[in-house]
Amino acid sequence: MSTSIDIAYNTDTGSMIIPEYGRHIHKIIEHAKEIKDKEERSKCAKAIVQIMGIINPGHKNNSDEHQQKLWSHLFIMADFNLNIDAPVKIPKKENYQSRPDIVPYPSNDIKYGHYGKIMEDMVKAASLLEEGENRQKLVKHIANLLKTSYLQWNRDSVNDSLIIKQLEELSEGKLTIESDQLKETSEIVKNFRKKKTNTKNYSKNKNRRR
Asked: What is the pLDDT of residues 165-174, one digit of tens each?
């Protein structure tokens, strides 16, 4: 299944359910919801939870309590609209009317500032997954997120070989991708401009109504 994930400026997009996990995690969860095969959807959800575990580590990451917390956060961010086989008790929406606890932001050094700590953790978590089609799909999405993030930082240009090189560096040589799997730079920049125009039009219309 080939699904593209478009990233816009944070001010151009809606609010996040649990902001501490970052917009990239929310976007990948939306991707998981679109996977038609339940088994593949469940595998993708498991990979996402592994990434969340790196972003939000507990004193005992593999404890039943911590795993339940991570999976609960996953369902909350999916607005409880995620039909999967989970290794824990699936939470009910009515039990989570209040906001979840704040996820502490990691203070570790960031290798590339324009990607951010969460993106780097996503790459590391993906590198721990078993080889297979599902892992390759996830790596493709992450690589395109890296390219989009790079272009947000440097609008002039980006060499696809640089994105591939940095993906390999962040994953310590465990992940790579072919250049033809990356989205065209012109397509990403065009989407930036479209989002920006829509935001300006929205602001103008909002001011006129006042």
From this structure: 999 998 999 9
Angle at which helix 64-77 crosses helix 38-55, to 10 degrees, equals 110
The residue among 34, 25, 27 whose CA lies nearest residue 2 is 34
19 membership: H or E segment, kind and range: none
The alpha helices in the chain, defined as continuous H runs, are 23-34, 38-55, 64-77, 116-127, 133-153, 160-170, 185-209
3-state secondary structure of 175: coil
d(CA 146, CA 120): 9
Token duo for residue 135: 């892992």
**pTM for the whole thing?**
0.53
Residue reference for tokens 């395109």: 144
- The confidence score (pLDDT) of residue 97 equals 60
**Do residues 52 and 61 touch, judged by C-beta distance below 8 A?**
no
d(CA 200, CA 108): 36
Intervals of the chain under pLDDT 70: 1-14, 58-62, 96-110, 155-156, 192-193, 195-210
Question: Counting Cβ atoms within 10 Å, is residue 106 exposed (0-12), middle (13-18) or buried (19+)?
Answer: middle
> According to the 3-state scheme, what is the secondary structure of 116-168?
HHHHHHHHHHHHCCCCCHHHHHHHHHHHHHHHHHHHHHCCCCCCHHHHHHHHH
